[in-house]
Amino acid sequence: MNIANLHPLVRNGLHISVVIASVGLCLLLLPSRLPGMEILGIGPSWLVMWTIAWSVRRSLWHAATAGIVLGLIQDGMTFPASATLGTVPTHVLSLTTVSVLAFWLHKRRYLDDTIFSVSIAAFMLTLVSEFVTGLQYLLETAIQQSPVASLDSLNHVWTNQSPVILIAAVLSGLWMPILYYPLNFWWQKIFAASKLI
After folding, report:
1. What is the rounded CA–CA span in Å between residue 105 and residue 126?
2. In this predicted model, which residue has the larger pLDDT, 36 or 132?
3. Staple partner for 99: which of 63, 105, 115, 139, CB 3.0–4.6 Å?
4. What are phi and psi of 90, to 5 degrees?
5. Which CATH topology does 3-191 take?
6. pTM of the entire structure?
7. Are residues 136 and 89 in contact, defined by beta-carbon separation less than 8 angstroms?
């Protein structure tokens, strides 16, 4: 099937369908722990990986918008019903930070299409995402309690959560090429077909 021969409305509809289906797949994979896709009950950060794949070839506005939308979707999936507004860190900040950094890394030519580059970017940006979320927890603890309690919270995060964060980053780096290359291939074909018109 030659995408360039399709009517522009059909091509746009197909493109939107692929975007929605790929985000939906990442959302389904996020809470699942399939064999070979997890270590010690920790899985890859699928939405961070999708955000990187999207942000690499987009404008800063499109990258940031994807981070905000995916952060809101993930908040909707993980926000506990018993929590009040403002007591649980949001994923909007972490995914927006990841999307802007992925855009910037590609713009500065630090991030290209090699497997090594994509995997390292997923590893590093997963760490950044978890760091931003951890800072929100520390800020919340510092506001609600005392500075001493926030230092205890920092010690807890450092000793208990750092292995979890590192495992998620390693798995994200390993699985990133499997998500990135099909999406990148599709988007390159769509962009090439759109420029022919």
Report:
1. 14
2. 132
3. 63
4. -95, 150
5. Arp2/3 complex 21 kDa subunit ARPC3 (1.10.1760)
6. 0.86
7. yes
